[in-house]
Amino acid sequence: MTRNNAGLSADRIITEALRIIDGQGLRRLTMRRLGDALDVEAMAIYHHFPLGKEQLFEAIVAHISDVSGGSPGDADAESGEVGPGGEDGAAGGAGEPSDSRSWDERLRTWALDYRRALLDHAQALPLFIHRRPDTEAALRTRELHYAAFAEAGLGGADAVQAAAALDSYVTGAVIHEVRANGLPARDPAVVDGRFPHTAALSGIELDPRRRFTDGLDSLLASLRP
Amino acid sequence: MTRNNAGLSADRIITEALRIIDGQGLRRLTMRRLGDALDVEAMAIYHHFPLGKEQLFEAIVAHISDVSGGSPGDADAESGEVGPGGEDGAAGGAGEPSDSRSWDERLRTWALDYRRALLDHAQALPLFIHRRPDTEAALRTRELHYAAFAEAGLGGADAVQAAAALDSYVTGAVIHEVRANGLPARDPAVVDGRFPHTAALSGIELDPRRRFTDGLDSLLASLRP
DNA sequence: ACCTGAACACCGTTCAAGT
DNA sequence: ACCTGAACACCGTTCAAGT
User: Fold this and answer.
1) pTM for the full model?
2) Contact between chains at A164 and B211 (C-beta distance less than 8 A)
3) Of B204, B184, B201, B194, which Cα lies nearest the Cα of A140?
């Protein structure tokens, strides 16, 4: 009922936008709908994101990408949805208790956390193709990767190549996992005869997480100099 | 000037849609603009794609995904843009002159062709995340992969896993190659000190195609049983 | 069968105005 | 500083109508 000061903030907007994306899909995130969900006129959003929807999209990508890469145990839960809101802020400085795990263990943790974050917001994935977060958190992640590879004995172009391979792997694996999750299982009459290998292998399903970790292990092994 | 029968066809619509996407970006592909480019009222498109834009998007994904996977020599040209229109039709049956090259050579050719197709239409990449073509051509590609892996000695779950890894690799590598092509090269003052590894490696650029083939070779080697 | 024209229920964004 | 309200130039899609 109060006309002004609705308690809007960039964080609240991002969280609500993500809820709409996760629940209804990317195309249904409109400024008007987002405004409604925030109990605010759509135009109020422009006060926090003056550059409009594109700026909001970038903030969403940055938000999802901001996985801690820490906490050794947390990466094992195959939870469906993670509670929103609590993952920012704390422990932001440069003085974390420097990680004592091996370089590959740290990268494994990051990869699993990042995969989970992407899967939890799979509807937002199209935003990631032409956008890369330009934030402190993104820099921390890069530093984490390069530091790990340095410890593994990779420097210079080798480290850059390795980091690219790791990033490519997680992205590609998640997209493969998400792509057309329910393919209509093509008419077997068409398959019969002309596509014998495909027919023979149809119906084989692999545990997605297992496949991810297997591929990841294989990649990390191949990077070891 | 003639009112009716403008010579519209699904193929012409797809080609023109792709031209708009490549030239102006995905969001600027609208039914009205597409109609204008085709010298037709926007609503005419619905006669060829009754399910509307979503059906058009699926057709575009299928069109781009339809790389022959044949012609051993063609994959080496790092051409910027390939002439549209000529890549369908011919040699569609099941009776191609069965490929005599080794299994990994055939997969390499497919991967390079597919990478080129994706790069040539990078603006369409967001469409690929939640859509997988359900066409004969897609089945042919799957069969090609499984046949190659069978020849390599991989069967059952191993072949499925290998095909997934190959698909993931190409997708992930292309997206990495395309993602935020012009990052503004972050303020070096911020980088200084707190991110030493990142600072040390900044400015290192690798030849994208070389990186792709190196990673591909490494993947194929790791799949060999 | 193939395309048009008008109409409907939306969009993102600007801009002046309110408090 | 923070939000509203009206307005502008668009959207995708339906539906009846033309040829």
Assistant:
1) 0.90
2) yes
3) B194
